Amino acid sequence: MSGVGIDKTEYIKKRIRACDYMCVAQLFLEDNFLLERPLGFDDVKPRLLGHWGTCHGINVAYANLKAFYDGDSNFSFVLGPGHGFPALQANLFMDGELEKVDPNASRDLRGLAYVCHNFSWPDGFPSHASPYTPGVIVEGGELGYALGSAYGVALGHPEKTLTVLIGDGELETATALASLNLRSLLATPKNGKVIPILHLNGYKISAPSIYARRSERELNEMIRGFGFQPILIDGDDPEVFQNALKQKVDSPFYILRTAKGAGGPNAHHESHQIPLKSPMNDSNELRTLEEWLSSYKFNELFDAEKGFTL
User: Fold this and answer.
1) Which of 37, 122, 185, 224 has the lowest tally of Cβ within 10 angstroms?
2) DSSP character at residue 90
3) For the stretch 43-72, what's the b/e string if a residue is b when 16 or more beta carbons lie within 10 angstroms of its beta carbon?
4) Checking DSSP bridges between strand 307-308 and strand 75-79, what pairing results, if any?
5) 108-158 pLDDT tens trace
């Protein structure tokens, strides 16, 4: 994993920045993907469709887990909130996994333009994870199945370790809650290790999540009731995340707490879907989008010809 051995913390931060930028670019941009000129109305997609709110948290989890389990071929990351597909696709693009199944997704400017332009686009990539995506076995529009699927993969494979990112709205589903009982049934030396991670960002599509309204004690006691040991990761600091992963406990259950839509425009930071509705014809929103994209300093992380320079 390039860069991790030099300074893991800095590499993780840069990776998160790069993937956050690519999420925004996928959601909004039709052209001018490196901001080589001032952003114009024609650079923005005429129809905006996708989900920003969960993306930063997915990128935080993915970057930290990939760094921690670097080189472990028996490790897998399972994503529950498939509506956060821009984040998943950004990471797959960065690692070259997307290029393996689609040569157009080369890790240079041409490939970046291809991925961003074709997100939520006719005959392009869907707004949710789909079976076309490398490693995806179910469409991401219906939540709740990730944990059960992970336990199924671990069954009879003691060499495997699977981390499962679960949205806090997703954990309200009957399927996700019922799947927590699988720990007591399948946590044996004959099966692999399944590690849940609750992404507690506070909101689902229409309201605050139930678990965001519970006290920390209430949430921890519920998790302990299913036989797990809760470990809080408060915020997106890689050192905090890495230290949490190093804790030696049986049946860990991580709680990653980040703000909904972290990194987005301040007035819309809790947005579940698209935080800017009309940057294709509203000059104020266009400037806000340009400032948002510029804040990631993507030009420090990506070269048009060489690709990623993390």
Assistant:
1) 122
2) H
3) bbbeebebbbbbbbbbbbbbbbbbbbbeee
4) unpaired
5) 999 999 999 999 887 878 777 777 777 776 665 678 899 999 999 999 999
Task: Fill in the amino acid letter for 110.
Answer: R
Distances (CA, A) of 78 to 65, 81, 265: 11, 10, 28
169-203 pLDDT tens trace:
899 999 999 999 999 999 999 999 999 999 999 88
1 pLDDT above the threshold of 50: no
Specify the 3-state DSSP secondary structure of 257.
strand
Q: Which letter does DSSP use for residue 296 in this model?
A: T
Domain ranges within the chain, ordered by starting residue = 8-304
Choices 3.40.50.970, 3.60.20.30, 2.60.40.10, 3.30.565.10: CATH for 8-304: 3.40.50.970
Instruction: Encode 146-193 in three state secondary structure.
Output: HHHHHHHHHCCCCCCEEEEEEECCHHHCHHHHHHCCHHHHHCCCCCCE
pTM for the model: 0.92
Bridge partners (DSSP) of residue 270 are none
**What is the torsional sign of CA 102, 12, 17, 51?**
positive
Whether 89 contacts 115, CB under 8 Å: yes
Buried b (16+ CB within 10 A) or exposed e, 106-140: bbebebbbbbbbbbbbeeebbbbbeeebeebeeeb
DSSP element (H, E) containing 222: helix 216-225
Taking the C-alpha atoms of residue 98 and residue 82, their distance in angstroms, rounded to an integer, is 16
Closest by Cα among 35, 60, 11, 53 to 116: 35
Name residue 74's amino acid: N
